[in-house]
Description:
The protein is an alpha/beta fold. The chain is 29% helix and 25% strand. The chain folds into two domains: 3-19 and 228-433, UDP-n-acetylglucosamine1-carboxyvinyl-transferase, Chain (Alpha-beta prism); 21-225, UDP-n-acetylglucosamine1-carboxyvinyl-transferase, Chain (Alpha-beta prism). The chain is built from twelve helices and 23 strands. The longest helix is centred in the C-terminal third of the chain and has 14 residues, at 385-398.
Amino acid sequence: MDLPVRRAKPLLGDLHIPGDKSISHRAALLAALGNGTSVLHGFLEAQDPHSTIRCLRSLGIRVETSGEEVRVHGRGLRGLSAPTNDLHAGNSGTTLRLLSGILAGHPFESVLTGDDSLRRRPMNRIVEPLTLMGASVKATNGKPPVRIRGKERLKPISYTLPVPSAQVKSAILLAGLYADGVTTVEEPVQTRDHTERMLGLQVQRHADRISVSVAGGMTIPSREFRIPGDISSAVFLIAAAACIKGSDCVIRRVGINPTRSAVLDVLQHSGVRIEKINCLEDDAEPLCDLHVAFSPPEHPVHIDPGTTPLVIDEIPALAVLAACARVGFSVEGAGELRVKESDRIALLSENLRRWGIDVREHQNGFRFDPPASLREATIESGGDHRIAMAFAVAGMVHGGITINEAECADVSFPGFWNLVERLVAGKPGPYSRMT
Ligand code: S3P
């Protein structure tokens, strides 16, 4: 679907964003390993978390969905049954990598695969540690399909992440549930810690690294879980509100876990006015309402290598925001962007050039000076949800943007284009999650 995006009216009133993708995956997976029924509220009703549910069902788990409420009938740590077909993770790296960790501890064979994009993504990063733990894990030239023959008892390991990746960390911690002893993961930069929080694991901070350990055999209780809104989805609305004159809105119930909220610091540093209100700090996952008013960045948006892993999913939105506000942009130490749902360095650079910006791309990042002029452009989303939604902001602020394969937004933000349509038409809020 090719979608033209016209200038939007000011963003006013209340906006609701869908549930957090990373937390939705983990909540479903851990509920499946729990003893009894867990109820997940605010579950993200998008393609990616539904891939996790589909795989769990193929592994014998009963999952009932009713909109954003999901009931998972857990069968305990060792309750999954052998699948009769390949497990299809769709576009979702989180599904494939986290589930691999769990399947490493199950003594049957399973094959995990995905769509064209996922079949291009690197898997040796999970093959190596899970093999060290004693499972047989074979990728196809380092990519999916991944064939796993798990073991009932794995070996505990101490592992330092070679790339900053919460997916790899989580795969090892989940496999650690099946190990005879304590498994430890060390990371030089802390990546998102939702798995640690859900399992109640202690994180230790050293001068040069963070480490987290899990003891094999722990029991996972069934529970009720409230999933906050996804800050990685909120960022598109923050960017639009910051750049569209007259905007003054409140984005409700956004997750502000400290391992995810560095994007707010980057935005505030550049001059965007964001106020946190109604914060619930003592929840399992902290959340706030975010009040954002028209306040385009006045300073260049610079993301240094230490910050990059903390804002890895928000870089498309931050780059487009900088261009909209005609300030410079640079990101470094972001080689991981090349192995996301698309090669985001190449695709962002290509689309920013189509829009009239002189982008200098290098292996681990890209930069541009304040753009002198912006033109009409057709954006090649490459089926990458975050590229499509980032350039929707370009359209809402400046008009004259058409997005190819726009339907890919459904991977993480159901109802995104309906919301954009309402904002373009200036329909009054509140904008519910599904409008
Ligand atoms: C995620 C971790 C990140 C992120 C992805 C979700 C997760 O990937 O980009 O959207 O839920 O653990 P990496 O672990 O590959 O960095």
